[in-house]
Amino acid sequence: MTEKKSKKRVIVAMSPYKSLRDSTGQAGGYNKKRIVVAMSGGVDSSVAAALLKKQGYEVAGVFMRFWAESQNHAELGGAEFTRPNFTKVKFVAGKRGNENLCCSEGAEKAARLVAAKLKIPFYVFNFTKEFKKEVVDYFLTEQAAGRTPNPCVVCNKKIKFGMLFQRALGVGADFIATGHYAWLTPNNAELLRRSALTSASFCVEDKTKCKKQNLSAEPHRKLLRAADGNKDQSYFLHQLDQKQLSRIIFPLADYTKDKVVKLAKKWRLPYRREESFDLCFVVNDVGSFIKRHLKLKTGKIINYHCCHSRLRFAEGFGKASESRNPESGSRVKPGMTQSVILGEHQGLPLYTIGQRKRLSISQGPWWVVKKDERKNILYVSNKERDLYRDECLVGQVNWLNGVTPKLPMKVWVKIRYKSEASQAVIRGIATRPARHGGQGARNDLVKVVFKKPQRAITPGQSAVFYTKTGEVLGGGMIK
């Protein structure tokens, strides 16, 4: 009777700056694809990592540290100004308060526990400075300019599928995966099959062999809505390009949220149960964050309907006389009635188009319909129809296939994440010379004309273009 030899499991520790190929060698199959999964400790990224591991791929988990205020930071507020409209607020070390769970110390701990459960390497990449510069400062700059930004779109483009993407590929990963609910075609299995048959270097050296096998060195990929319409996140990914899409895997593309939660419980993954919320860098609420970081200036709240129908002139105003609004105490200029000036706003960045709450004016309901940054005026209306528009300009347009289509073209457009896609026609209106001395021209500003008027089209938000079948064609920022 022969004795069975006991096998010892060897765990190799790896520096995040060392190549994945160097750490694994030939063990487990040299051609096995290496996938880095962005893990936040939540159920989605945890199940995404588990699915890839169970499919036999070589998986490593990465947690990204982002800039966020501490609770002490939020309590201190800002007193000094380093540039126009920006306050100087130093980061204060200490226990964070009501922070977003996806970036907290608890989230990092949960992600580490999930990685240990799956027996995959786990690393932490510190993107604190990069996140502050590319995402937080962008958010504040847009707010100061009177727009309502969408920082998640910028984070996906420049951090998750930008800096993480480059660092992951730099250490030997073949693909990067996340817990996003979105669909890519060719699908994950097809993409990995192609990659198993050929490598980038193989295609460059012998394109004839690739052609014979009906393979492409850089396969074109399409981004589509996920199977779970309620959780679909394709809206936030419209700024990606083919180079990024060719190396991205979304394991949850055809899963519903309920199914993902059931799998996590079945596999007993120690993920954090709480869901994250909107802005990961904000402590408490967005309004207080803006007050701490921007220099706000009060101004008039004016009845939009009165001003845009016919200004009514008051009688009895003398040149030397002065009147004040009885509610706000703000001055009323001669020639303008008190029914036009309704009150005083606390700073335009605190308001967004369509807002109804926290206006502090009576005889409502009132909705914010326009912001005039030059005159520092907030226009409101008690007629909801004033919120509806049938067209808008969209700039910084990105087309996912890398080619500007022939315009005009019929599409379906989403003007915010939770809105329904509406039928529209895109018309090109501006062709600009290529930047930095490049060749050709950039058609990066288009007009979107809707079949039906849309409610509260908001400058700074993203307008994303879809086909009727749910393919993302591209998108840009509403002007």
Task: Provide a descriptive summary of the structure in words.
The protein is α+β, with helices and mostly antiparallel strands and 479 residues long. The chain folds into three domains: 31-186 and 221-266, HUPs (Rossmann fold); 299-345 and 351-382, no CATH class; 388-478, Beta Barrel (Elongation Factor Tu (Ef-tu), domain 3). It contains 13 helices and 21 strands. It has helices at 20-24, 43-54, 71-76, 105-118, 128-144, 151-170, 188-197, 200-205, 207-212, 242-245, 257-266, 286-293, 304-309, and strands spanning 34-38, 58-65, 80-83, 86-88, 122-126, 175-177, 183-185, 222-224, 248-249, 299-303, 323-324, 331-332, 341-345, 367-372, 377-381, 388-399, 409-414, 422-433, 441-455, 462-466, 471-478. The chain has a six-stranded antiparallel beta barrel with strand order 16-19-18-17-20-21. Strands 5-2-1-6-9 form a five-stranded parallel sheet, sandwiched between helices. A four-stranded mixed sheet has the order 13-10-15-14. Helix 2 (43-54) crosses helix 11 (257-266) and helix 5 (128-144) packs antiparallel against helix 6 (151-170). The termini are far apart. Residues 1-30, 76-98, 197-217, 309-329, 332-338 and 433-442 have low confidence and may be disordered.
